[in-house]
């Protein structure tokens, strides 16, 4: 059995390029007692992976040059000598960026036997959806009737945050980077959608969209989005800081907003979070989200690239705003 | 009766100058039934007043050009037709920047009859001391054994925050702007004191002083202090944002730190606060602080200018680091 896999070939400087990645092949041995062979069906690309490509201390260790990349994946067991993972089981793992792998079951989870496309466990029912829900519930404690602002609102996390915000009874203002994305969010019932690339001054656009001020900002972008949000927050507003994608490819550090003194004047609370620390709440989340999906209250949009060799392009596309909803790579039918 | 008073003559651009202030005189009428006449003994100058000199919406209304400035003051009733404020009463008010005023008692508080110099009610027992205690207790929830970093640590708020930090059982690291201030804080038992003007790279100096990382940062300065703190915070660290004095005189907005993504990586909590919103806790604070002062556990340093005409210079001195502890103007014996 040969597995195809994508290694980190070199560390990106600034925006990653295809040359930072290398597709290789490797022989897999036969499985032994207690092992099973997984064929990956889907893999996830996510903005946070950019951080792991840098050689620095962070909340997860950096990728190493010459090693196979990692990331969320959904696969199917195709050979097994492990009683808990029979052939045909669908499993989720962090062993994406490869076509096959052998496991003894550590850090592999069997998907529940539900009537939902397994790819959603990489998106709306997985880490991105759980991130949106955690930020709104456990970090910002969004309340009914409040005004929520979400940046990168057409992305895997943002699009779910917008929709959960509506389900929680908030007025939701979204920022996106294309008219097509804006139109789609409006069709989902999002109250105000700003195309930050064409709106002129974002600060003014946000003030117009939220004349009453913002109670909660779900921060995915940083830079000018953070600056505009600070200027438009209400007193005692809360900012859940999930990501700052505008800065991930900086080669020269970009200065932060010049209006941080708003934190004092408005008595703001700003809190960063990493979803993995909140994983104890995952069963509660899946139960809720399962109901929302079943009742059609949440739309789970996906942008799909096909074939492992397309994984680098899918990843690069995240930084060019090419995805609507969850960016996925389909590895096999 | 003539009162001397200082008006805002023009709005400062950048660092205020003496020309922004004007000393004038005004006749006061005779007091009527229900009124009393106060002779101010002490007045406070505080960095937050710089914000009120700008014409912008904030948590308190801006000063108006041609009107008498306001600020904390301690005075003595010298004539009275009000039963609750007999002659000889010591009172605290927001009617500083003037030698005398007539009141009907609104927003005037009589000082308790305790054996403490009344000037301390503008400092360690007043708004600055209460600010330090509120930030550490109610905002950052500093715990015994944690590492606390305080900037502007020789100032009215900072010097109290350092000392309360020690009393709460924290390891305390302080940043100041002169060797003389550093020496004084060391004599008070502060664990590590950095002179940010001579230490070279503040980030490195802080890393050396807090190799274990910082649990709580009491933020008075902004700019490079915030950047260095972000780089040296522990995971789940808390930042109580009290002030950003480095920015108060900016004519061109100064960019914020480029390392705000540390908020995510370290899952930091940052919270701005205004002490007046926490005033319900003032009795608890005065009881605690009264004990600390009586037992010699807190030293209440003061820098004193003499005479109302020196009030602008005292205020300007705040931005030149001329004060050790509370900056006060003594108006009368």
Automatic annotation (TrEMBL), chains A, B:
SMART domains: PKS_ER. The keyword DNA damage does not apply. Coiled coil: none annotated. SUPFAM superfamilies: GroES-like (SSF50129), NAD(P)-binding Rossmann-fold domains (SSF51735). CDD domains: PGDH. InterPro entries: ADH-like_C, ADH_N_2, ER, GroES-like_sf, MDR_fam, NAD(P)-bd_dom_sf. Residues 16-329 form the Enoyl reductase (ER) domain. Keywords: Oxidoreductase. Pfam families: ADH_N_2, ADH_zinc_N. It comes from the Bacteria. This is NADP-dependent oxidoreductase.
């Amino acid at each position: 059995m040969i597995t195809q896999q994508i290694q980190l070939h070199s560390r990106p400087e600034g925006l990653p390029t295809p040359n930072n990645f290398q597709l290789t092949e490797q022989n897999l041995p036969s499985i032994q007692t207690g092992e099973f062979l997984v064929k990956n069906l889907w893999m996830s690309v996510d903005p946070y992976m950019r951080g792991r490509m840098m050689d620095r201390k962070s909340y997860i260790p950096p990728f190493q040059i010459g090693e196979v990349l990692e990331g969320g994946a959904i696969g199917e067991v195709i050979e097994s000598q492990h009683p808990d993972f029979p052939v045909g089981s669908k499993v989720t793992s962090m062993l994406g960026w490869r076509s096959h792998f052998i496991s003894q079951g550590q850090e592999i989870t069997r998907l529940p036997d539900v009537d939902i496309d397994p790819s959603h466990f990489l998106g709306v029912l997985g880490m991105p959806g759980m991130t949106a829900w955690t930020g709104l519930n456990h970090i910002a404690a969004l309340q009914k009737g409040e005004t929520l602002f979400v940046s990168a609102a057409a992305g895997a996390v943002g699009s779910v945050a917008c929709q959960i915000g509506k389900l929680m009874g908030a007025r939701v203002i979204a920022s996106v980077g294309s008219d097509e994305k804006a139109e789609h969010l409006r069709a989902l019932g999002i109250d105000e959608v700003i195309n930050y690339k064409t709106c002129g001054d974002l600060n003014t656009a946000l003030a117009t969209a939220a004349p009453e001020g913002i109670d909660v900002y779900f921060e995915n972008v940083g830079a000018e989005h953070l600056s505009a949000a600070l200027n438009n927050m209400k007193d005692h507003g809360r900012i859940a800081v999930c990501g700052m994608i505008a800065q991930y490819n900086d080669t020269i550090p970009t200065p932060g907003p010049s209006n941080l003194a708003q934190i004092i004047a408005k008595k703001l609370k700003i809190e960063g979070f990493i979803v993995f620390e909140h994983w104890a709440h995952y069963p509660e989340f899946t139960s809720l989200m399962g109901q929302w999906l079943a009742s059609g209250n949440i739309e789970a949009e996906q942008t799909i690239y096909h074939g492992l060799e397309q994984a680098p392009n899918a990843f690069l596309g995240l930084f060019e705003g090419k995805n609507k909803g969850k960016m996925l790579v389909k590895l096999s039918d």
